[in-house]
Structures are given as structure tokens and as C-alpha cells.
Amino acid sequence: GAVVSQHPSWVICKSGTSVKIECRSLDFQATTMFWYRQFPKQSLMLMATSNEGSKATYEQGVEKDKFLINHASLTLSTLTVTSAHPEDSSFYICSAIRDTNTEAFFGQGTRLTVV
Amino acid sequence: AQTVTQSQPEMSVQEAETVTLSCTYDTSENNYYLFWYKQPPSRQMILVIRQEAYKQQNATENRFSVNFQKAAKSFSLKISDSQLGDTAMYFCAFTALNRDDKIIFGKGTRLHILP
Q1: What confidence tens digit (pLDDT) does each residue in B56-78 have?
Q2: Backbone CA torsion sign across A51, A52, A53, A58
Q3: Which of A45, A90, A108, B37 lies most in the core, judged by the most C-beta atoms within 10 Å?
């Protein structure tokens, strides 16, 4: 199956700093990538949909200026949490699809802790 | 808007037994996919099984099978001969065959396989 790599797997940052999470499709070109947030023992909450070369589409209630998404190429999307605060601490997961309406492949997730 | 409901937050079964996880969904779409994803303690999302709504035949993958009732909007997962490695969170998910390819997840069922 296709591989999606997410980096870093975990990160600790100080309050007020920004942190970037990368999502790469290693062996296919991803037409669309998605970013999710998962709180402990809860489901995945879709944050935004990102397509290469265009602005991300954010879900209602997700702050665009707080969670910056850049989809610079067909194999890379990045999520930057700006001016991070402890309440941004969470597990962030990306997924990528190769063509429309096909299987989504997930990264291994990034655990962000803001101290 | 589409919704996915999993009414069983947690279940436990003995190893080798059969277990059924419930899922209902709501949509006005006619063409869509339904999925069951497994999230083990590693938190890597793994696709267990997929069902295309236009197919009447229930999908099967080895020990995993679904009971897809389109009229009732029900999509249950049956795990036969359960194994200790099946212990995980299981998420039912939906995506419509339109342009946005978003996957909507249920809240999940935590499944414990007991030795």
C-alpha cells in the first residue's frame, strides 16, 4: 500500500512559539491531503482539506491564522501551529489520497505538547 | 450534513469469539463509501474494510466482514475468531462521492480482546 510519512512523531515546544508538522506521501502523488486533530480517547476531527497549489479549506471553528497549512507540492503538506498555547496540545494526523474517492492513507501522527 | 454514529463506546470479548460493532450513518447522498478503520495503541490508522454504497454484496476481508443495510443506513463490522491483536479503537467512517473527498468519522468503539 501507499506510504504517508509524518514528521516529527512528537514535539515539545514552549508556549508562544510556532511548530511545523510535515506530511509526505512517499510513493505516490497526493491530490488531496487532510489534517485531523485527535484528543485523548476521542475521534478524529477534521481541521482542513488541502490541495496542491491552492488555499486550504478549513472546517468551521478552526482558526486559519492559528493553523497554517501549506501544500507546496503533490507530495508535501505542512501544518504550522502558530503562537502555540497549552490548549493546542494534541495528536495531529494527516492523510492523503491518490485520486478522488480512493482510499485515504494516514501518517503515523504527531503528538504536540506545548509547555 | 453527514453524520456517523457508533453507539458502543467500549466492548470486550474473549479471544476466538465473534464480535459485532455497530454503526449507523445519515446522509442525503446516493453514492458514497463506508469504511471501518482500526487504531491500535500505536495510533496508526489502518483501513480494515471498505464498502461501496452501490454494491449490494457485503465486503469481506478474511476475518472481517460487514453487514451493509443501505435502506436502514446501517454498517456493522463483524470480527470472527477474534485475536489479541484486534484490540484497538475502531472507527466507522463515511465519504461521499463528490469533489471534497472528506472522510467523516464516528466517535469510535474501543474493543478489548481478552485472553
Answers
A1: 899 999 999 999 999 999 999 99
A2: positive
A3: B37
